[in-house]
Write a structure and sequence with these properties.
The complex is a heterotetramer, with one copy of chain A, one copy of chain B and two copies of chain C.
Chain A lengths: L7 H6 L4 H11 L5 H11 L1 H4 L4 H4 L9 E3 L6 E4 L4 E9 L1 H6 L1 H17 L4 E11 L7 H19 L3 E8 L8 E11 L14 E6 L9 H4 L8 H4 L8 H16 L3 E6 L4 H13 L2 E5 L12 H6 L5 E6 L4 H10 L3 E9 L4 E5 L2 E6 L1 H6 L25 H10 L7 H4 L10 E3 L6 E4 L6 E7 L2 H6 L1 H17 L4 E10 L6 H21 L3 E7 L3 E2 L2 E2 L3 E10 L22
Parallel strand pairs in A: 4-5, 9-12, 17-18
Antiparallel strand pairs in A: 1-2, 2-3, 3-6, 4-6, 7-10, 7-11, 8-10, 9-11, 12-13, 14-15, 15-16, 16-21, 17-21, 19-20
Helix pairs in contact in A: 7-8, 7-11, 8-11, 11-14, 19-20
Chain B lengths: L2 E5 L6 H12 L4 E4 L11 E4 L13 H4 L2 H11 L3 E5 L1 H8 L6 E3 L7 E9 L15 E8 L3 E3 L2 H9 L3 E6 L18 E5 L5 E4 L17 H14 L1
Helix pairs in contact in B: 1-6
Chain C lengths: L1 E8 L6 H12 L5 E14 L4 H16 L5 E7 L2
Antiparallel strand pairs in C: 1-2, 1-3
Classes of the chains: A alpha+beta, B alpha/beta, C alpha+beta.
The structure holds adenosine-5'-diphosphate.
Organism (chains C, D): Thermohalobaculum xanthum
Subunit structure (chains C, D): Part of the FGAM synthase complex composed of 1 PurL, 1 PurQ and 2 PurS subunits.
Main location (chains C, D): cytoplasm
Chain lengths: 572, 233, 80, 80
């Protein structure tokens, strides 16, 4: 197979702007190979590099006595006392879900679960925040059905209770639904696993499912605005395999307990590329990969395809060499692939070999460190127009209309499709302010909620950002929990437009201020930009996932009132 | 009571079931891996948990039913051992031929997770004897393929032989169509083998056997097992 | 050799999936759909090169695993 | 008229079901199974009596509902 010639136009097809391509040429002092171009495009797209958002994300409060690990790893880690920690994060799978709702949403759940268990935590709760177009829109019904079914099929089979979330309908999401998935897990505070490699000459091991051509170019897709032809292009979507993920979870937890793991990283978008670079970068080491050893599902896969494949249910690990036999036996037991595909090297180098050829030879640190970062121009959102006067109507009728409206009616039809009780620790089920899940074998419990009100964020991003955090705080408090920390999933339109960037900046300011004031640091999160179709942006939707702690279930406040109870309204 | 929980790849209610059995028996249940060829010696009860064994790919329970440990479970059952299958465990017992009928996709075609009411249809079994006067219980279901299918002859025989252990009912104990979460024939939620020592059921008594989880209606099942075993000993 | 195994529900066994498809086709404006039944087709690539032996082997697979003969029928077709 | 629609995953799309079946066949002692892919077959009974018109109609059904053309291919066969 001949590789296409690398030039500016091929770089543009990879989503690299002319100045970004020039940056690569300057860095290498030569033209990159085809595989190298693929690697750069994966590392430098919005999804992996956070090039438009980094500047602002740095302003969020991320510290506190309860924080064991803030943003930057696969998930955030919070101390919950007694040597235990909760590990959690939220992540979007918006574009894939619009193209193939069932599989897109399912693989979104799979991805976030892996983020949690790569850190050594057993997932104990999942949530999902969903935004769809108006009910009457011809696509909405099948999107809703597919997304809910996909989330259920993955979480139910994997065996994590899906205990909460949000569902909203608004025309701004007609061409661009949002699927944000949250997962939380439990671990021992002194047994958290990180991604930084350490030690020279250590084996780099590939774990899990085989590599196929799934979503090659997918990371690039997730960061590009949709056009009319989005439905025609139909890139290969990934199919989720929750059964393999469940085995991968059990195998990874056994592996971690065996003491074989130096560092571990899940393969998400542009799997092998991002995971290998991240492990090397964090550990100040180089990585050499021999792709001949990569377990492949399809024949004649090229280096380019392997480096960009988004096949699911895979991990990359740096192994203690003396533990190889133990580790291999665990993966045999679970019938999963285990292959040594490279090793750590002392120099700052990312060397990729395939078929006896060097396919990529890059300065490793530059792949993340030299990634472009933008200070995008932004304008403050102008004051919203006042609302039209509220029509006079009969209060009882108004109440009935509100309760029957798509955005306020019961969500039982959603959560009943999710196993929200598996693991037998769900103390407060969906349908309350926040769900409460017991810490297995203890009297402690964790409370979970997901909140945002996008129309507030549109009207006033700063206040909308604050409101989302405050609502999450209230939902947790109402169960009797002490709020601990949040994860955010920032969904916005095209950041190259100053008004959209203004919404983004405003929401971050508001979230930051509220988190600071309420002592709820942001410990993980995800940014999804370019949520636009034909130039129409979604409502600014910074989903907030929040976690609180009940030190004893005796503190839990039930929601169901008893006859004769007094009803009080507090606050203002 | 010495019990064992069989663990297949994809089982995910194995821990819950072991907790419920262990709590009732006062000794932990052993966990047995599907690739093992034999059960631990001296067992009183073998339990097959819920979940998605082998992903429930092909048909629910089909692949698990043909794994090495199931030969030992079938032998154990044929020797008169007590075997309990919950949810996916029920599907596996049916696929293994230990219980009659079939379980098919819910009539709604959707996964359903919620509490249902069950009527305890018989006390004549090692699984139900301790329900006593408590003939309508509330326990959760969580499944996608729980519609119990039996032809007319089979349904009539199960009825005549008092082998229907549980039916889906409303809070008043009536087996209405609305109370049926999945389209099971005759609202059947659980059935017994002809020697009454094998029970398969879709609902999850192990999920409501702890007051902190909002109820203990499932607990008498595990007490029944302990009593039945103690009586023999 | 390649074989296809068709697994279909026995007549008389209710097929909620097929029923749902029939209903959905109706709502999409497709008229005159009298009944719909959904089954599985399993394609198997075999090392065996003798057609008769391969077919017999696949029939055994169907009998032992691929079909639940309580409610399903199967049919084996050799593709070549 | 009766039609059969075969819906199969596009080449390259992961088929966890097929993979699990292949694995299970191996554990049951069936050797030489190189690959397994699982698909659907949907049998439709139509009022339409003209074979060409029926076939075109069923193809439209497949396109609109029966197959998820993002990841699946379909093939229509008229049975008579
Ligand atoms: N997608 C979903 N998945 C699971 N549970 C959901 C989902 N959407 C809403 N819920 C649950 O439904 C209940 C009501 O949701 P919502 O109206 O957003 O609550 P609130 O306004 O109190 O935050 C909550 O318990 C919530 O967790």
């Amino acid at each position: 197979m001949t590789e296409p010639a690398v030039n500016q136009s091929l770089a543009a097809d990879h989503g690299l702007k002319p100045d970004e391509y020039q940056r690569i040429l300057n860095l290498l002092e030569r033209t990159p190979t085809f595989t190298e171009l693929g690697i750069f495009s994966a590392m430098w797209n919005e999804h992996c590099s956070y090039k438009s958002s980094k500047k602002w994300l740095r302003t969020l409060p991320t510290k506190g006595p309860q924080v064991i690990c803030g943003p930057g790893e696969n998930a955030g880690v919070i101390d919950i006392g007694d040597g235990q920690a909760v590990v959690f994060k939220m992540e979007s799978h918006n574009h894939p879900s619009y193209i193939e709702p069932h599989q897109g949403a399912a693989t979104g759940v799979g991805g976030i679960l892996r983020d949690v268990f790569t850190m050594g935590a057993r997932p104990i709760a999942a949530m999902n925040a969903l935004s769809f177009g108006e009910i009457e829109h011809p696509k909405t019904r099948s999107l809703v059905a597919g997304v809910v079914e996909g989330i259920g099929s993955y979480g139910n089979c994997f065996g994590v209770p899906t205990v909460g979330g949000e569902v909203r309908f608004h025309p701004a999401y007609n061409g661009n639904c949002l699927v944000n998935a949250f997962a939380a897990g439990l671990a021992d505070a002194d047994k958290i696993f990180y991604s930084a490699a350490s030690g020279v000459g250590m084996p780099v091991v590939y774990l899990g499912a085989k590599t196929g051509r799934d979503g090659v170019g997918g990371a690039t897709m997730a960061s590009a605005e949709f056009g009319e032809d989005a439905e025609e292009k139909r890139p290969t979507v990934q199919v989720g395999d929750p059964f393999t993920e469940k085995r991968l979870l059990e195998a990874c937890l056994e592996l971690m307990a065996s003491g074989a793991v130096i560092s571990i990283q899940d393969m998400g978008a542009a799997g092998l590329t991002c995971s290998a670079v991240e492990m090397g970068d964090k550990g100040n080491l180089g990585i050499e990969l021999d792709l001949d050893a990569v377990p492949c599902r399809e024949q004649a896969m090229s280096a380019y395809e392997m480096m960009l494949s988004e096949s699911q249910e895979r991990m990359l690990m740096v192994l203690k060499p003396e533990k190889e036999a133990v580790a291999r036996a665990i993966f045999d037991k679970w019938d999963l692939d285990f292959a040594i595909v490279g090793h750590t090297i002392p120099e700052d180098r990312f060397l990729v070999k395939h078929d006896g050829e060097i396919k990529a030879d890059l300065p490793l640190k530059a792949l993340s460190g030299e990634a472009p970062e933008y200070d995008r121009p932004w304008v403050e959102t102008s004051a919203a127009r006042p609302l039209a006067p509220v029509p006079e109507m009969d209060p009882a009728e108004a109440l009935a209309a509100l309760m029957g409206s798509p955005n306020l009616c019961s969500r039982a039809w959603v959560w009943q499709q999710y196993d929200h009780m598996v693991m037998a620790d769900t103390v407060v089920r969906p349908g309350s302010d926040a769900a409460v899940v017991r810490v297995h074998g203890t009297q402690k419990a964790l409370a979970f909620t997901a909140d945002v009100t996008p129309r507030y964020c549109k009207a006033n991003p700063v206040e909308g950002g604050k409101q989302a955090v405050a609502e999450a705080f209230r939902n947790l408090s109402a169960t009797g929990a002490r709020p601990l920390a949040v994860t955010d999933n920032l969904n916005f339109g095209n950041p190259e437009k100053p008004e959209i960037m203004g919404q983004f900046v405003g929401c971050i300011k508001g979230i930051g201020a509220a988190c600071e004031a309420l002592d709820m640091p942001v410990v993980s999160g995800n940014v999804s930009l370019y949520n636009e179709t034909n130039g129409e942006a979604i409502l600014p939707t910074p989903s907030i996932g929040a976690v609180g702690l009940l030190t004893s279930l005796d503190e839990a406040i039930p929601m169901a009132p008893c006859a004769g109870d007094a009803l009080l309204m507090i606050g203002h | 009571m010495k019990s064992a929980v069989i663990v297949f790849p994809g089982s995910n209610c194995d821990r819950d079931l072991a907790v419920a059995l262990g709590a009732a028996a006062g000794r932990p249940a052993s966990m047995v891996w599907h690739k093992d060829a034999a059960l631990p010696p001296g067992l009183d009860v073998v339990a097959i948990p819920g979940g998605f064994s082998f992903g429930d790919y092909l048909r629910c329970g089909a692949i698990a039913a043909r794994s090495p440990i199931m030969r030992a479970v079938v032998d154990f059952a044929h020797r008169g051992g007590i075997v309990l299958g919950i949810c996916n465990g029920f599907q596996i017992l049916i696929e293994a031929g230990l219980l009659p009928g079939a379980l098919m996709r819910n009539q709604t075609l959707k996964f359903v997770c919620r509490d249902v009411h069950l009527s305890v249809e018989t006390l004549q079994s090692p699984f139900t004897s301790a329900f006593g006067n408590q003939r309508v219980i509330r326990v959760p279901v969580a499944h996608h393929d729980g519609a119990y299918i039996a032809d007319y002859a089979l349904a009539a025989r199960l009825e005549a032989e008092d082998r229907i252990a549980f039916r889906y009912v409303d809070a008043d104990g009536d087996a209405t169509e609305a109370a049926n979460p999945n389209g099971s024939v005759g609202n059947i939620a659980g059935v017994l083998s002809d020697n009454r020592r094998i029970l398969g059921m879709m609902p999850h008594p192990e999920r409501l056997a702890d007051p902190q989880l909002g109820g203990t209606d499932g607990a008498p099942m595990f007490r029944s097992l302990v009593e039945a075993v103690a009586e023999v000993a | 050799m390649k074989a296809r195994v068709f697994v279909t529900l026995k007549t008389g066994v209710l097929d909620p999936q097929g029923e749902a498809i029939r209903h959905a086709l109706g709502s999409l404006g497709f008229g005159g759909v009298e009944s719909v039944r959904q089954g599985k087709v399993i394609e198997i690539e075999l090392a065996e090169t003798d057609p008769a032996r391969a077919e017999a082997e696949v029939a055994r697979m169907a009998e032992k695993l691929l079909a639940n003969t309580v409610i399903e029928n199967y049919r084996v077709e050799m593709v070549g």
